[in-house]
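lol forgot to send this yesterday, sorry. struct tokens for the thing we talked abt
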């Protein structure tokens, strides 16, 4: 048992750190002022800041004739006693205000299992501990491929679309999926998710996430209409880093100033959103910069056997839009520099203003709610499984397996949630 003295010492140290934290915050603000000042000068030098001059009475009569698609994916997984069913669906919300047309589409929806050899999303992993480590990465890979597959389906159906928006990045960071041993998709999964990906006698490498995703991206890049990924927040400093690197490469920024600025950004964990929140005014945007998504400057993020394939991935054009003064800028990604930059960014700004408190394209909010797999469905499936398992236990005379199943159903396993409280819990001697 902790003494009062120990607890008091802990409290004093905690308070001391809180005071020091305030001092650190003051130092952080000073650093931010310097970094933002440097970035503002660079942005002005390259003429990268644009005013969108939003006027709803003039904008909407011209924009309402556009047919616009909003795409997102939803995923739910139940970690049951002997299985891990995974429900995935990707959907679209396609709208044309002039024609008063609205359409919801979920042509990609299926249920697979992360543990079932006969109906599995990925090839089976023999190493149980490695399988456990891969669970989150496998879910992310499934969601990314499903969303990319939905975009590909739109392209292949050749439906007339003027603009298309994806909820999230247009290209995911590949680092989590290049780890040695990351399992390839099964043939079943590829046929379900990306039916356009047709190769005879697909090898293990053909079915790997890196190759499947690349094939989707090639089609997305060559789409007959602009496709943008829209991110709610930018947790990286990719735009800032790449701009600094470009200036250093041109000889407009010394190696010393470049290294010092990069080190400050790293030390204080300064993101693009932090910087552009300060620099940009409402209804302003940053022209896209071409960025190597899988690289910083000239350095690859992670060495792996997939490096040669990753180099083939196209660069991404990244820009920002500040909708209002109440929210941080949103990040806009595309595979091609926008041919109609001002018009396209003005459209994103306009549909984001329809959600004034959140400042994000309302169509992506709509499709997110449409494809999201509700919590009640997850709970219902688990309750159904529990009922089935309980019936099996009642008909089974073997007490060993019965005890195991009952512990799982009653949630009496040894977990942090079931730890005894301060005055609870009996100590056996």
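and heres what i got for the seq, position by position
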């Amino acid at each position: 048992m902790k003494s009062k003295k120990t607890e008091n010492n802990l409290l004093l140290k905690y308070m001391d750190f809180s005071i020091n934290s305030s001092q650190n915050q003051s130092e952080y603000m000073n650093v931010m002022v310097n970094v933002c000042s440097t970035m503002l000068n660079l942005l002005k030098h390259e003429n990268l800041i644009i005013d969108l001059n939003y006027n709803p009475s003039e904008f909407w009569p011209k924009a309402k004739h556009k047919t616009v698609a909003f795409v997102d994916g939803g995923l739910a997984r139940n970690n049951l006693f002997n299985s891990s069913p995974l429900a995935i669906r990707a959907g679209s919300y396609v709208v044309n205000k002039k024609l008063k047309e609205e359409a919801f589409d979920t042509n990609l929806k299926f249920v697979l299992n992360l543990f079932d050899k006969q109906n599995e999303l990925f090839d089976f992993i023999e190493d149980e501990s490695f399988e456990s480590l891969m669970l989150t990465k496998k879910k992310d890979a499934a969601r990314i491929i499903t969303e990319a597959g939905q975009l590909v389906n739109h392209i292949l159906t050749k439906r007339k679309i003027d603009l298309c928006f994806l909820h999230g990045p247009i290209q995911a960071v590949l680092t989590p999926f290049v780890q040695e041993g990351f399992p390839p998709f099964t043939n079943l999964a590829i046929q379900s998710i990306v039916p356009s990906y047709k190769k005879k006698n697909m090898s293990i490498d053909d079915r790997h996430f890196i190759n499947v995703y690349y094939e989707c991206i090639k089609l997305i890049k060559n789409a007959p209409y602009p496709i943008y990924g829209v991110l709610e927040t930018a947790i990286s400093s990719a735009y800032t880093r790449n701009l600094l690197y470009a200036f250093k490469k041109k000889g407009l920024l010394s190696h010393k100033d470049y290294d010092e600025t990069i080190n400050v950004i790293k030390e204080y964990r300064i993101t693009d959103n932090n910087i552009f929140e300060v620099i940009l005014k409402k209804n302003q945007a940053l022209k896209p910069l071409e960025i190597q998504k899988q690289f910083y400057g000239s350095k690859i993020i992670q060495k792996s056997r997939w490096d040669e394939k990753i180099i083939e991935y196209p660069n991404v054009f990244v820009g920002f839009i500040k909708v209002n003064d109440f929210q941080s800028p949103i990040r806009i990604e595309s595979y091609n520099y926008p041919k109609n930059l001002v018009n396209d960014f003005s459209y994103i700004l306009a549909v984001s203003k329809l959600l004034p408190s959140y400042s994000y394209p309302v169509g992506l909010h709509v499709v997110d709610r449409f494809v999201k797999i509700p919590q009640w469905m997850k709970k219902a499936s688990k309750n159904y499984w529990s009922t089935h398992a309980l019936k099996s236990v009642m008909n089974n005379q073997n007490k060993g397996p019965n005890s195991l199943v009952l512990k799982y159903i009653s949630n009496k396993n040894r977990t942090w949630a079931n730890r005894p409280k301060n005055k609870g819990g009996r100590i056996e001697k």
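The chain has a mean pLDDT of 81. anyway ping me if u want another try
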